[in-house]
Amino acid sequence: MTWHAAFDLAGAILLLLGASLAFIGAVGLVRLPDLFARMHAATKPQTLGLLLILLGLALSVRTWTSITTLIIVLGAQALTAPVAAHMLGRAGYRSGVTESELLHHDELGEAYRRMEQ
């Protein structure tokens, strides 16, 4: 087996793993019960799935311009997904969409109650 064939095989495996994680995240968005669980399903597996897909593409394509573009996409995703999830969770909590009985620890509620006093 040549190095090119090994890189292509590793790239194909990473693409399949990344697509599987993205699919699991999509199923989690549909099936999970509350905002925080759905938010977790939208960010964690999707980000890792995209990372695996980008690594698989980098191993398959193997050109510097493509790898540079993939690194830019990875950086943008790694910076925006956690911020978007944080803002979505905060907005959902403030608007009362979340179910308080599903929360194990409500540190944010204690902070809001202290601010109101």
Q: Extract low-pLDDT stretches.
A: none
Count of DSSP-assigned helices:
4
Going by helix content, strand content and strand pairing, the class is mainly alpha
**Could you say which overall geometry the principal axes of the C-alpha atoms support?**
elongated
Q: What level of helicity do the residues show?
A: over 70%
Can you summarize the main beta sheet? none
Task: Report the span from N to C terminus.
Answer: 70 Å
Number of strands: 0
What is the rounded Rg?
19 Å
Mean pLDDT: 87
Q: Number of domains in the coordinates?
A: 1
Q: Report the oligomer.
A: single chain
Write down the secondary-structure element order: HHHH
- Beta-strand percentage? under 5%
Structure description:
The chain is an all-alpha fold and about 120 residues long. It is about 85% helix and about 0% strand. The protein has one domain (about 5-115). Helix 1 (about 5-30) packs antiparallel against helix 2 and helix 2 runs antiparallel to helix 3 (about 65-95). The chain is elongated, with a radius of gyration of 19 Å. About 10% of the residues are buried.
Give a nutshell description of this structure.
This protein has helices spanning 3-31, 35-61, 64-95, 107-116.
Write the topology of this structure:
Elements (H helix, E strand, L loop, with lengths): L2 H29 L3 H27 L2 H32 L11 H10 L1
Helix pairs in contact: 1-2, 2-3
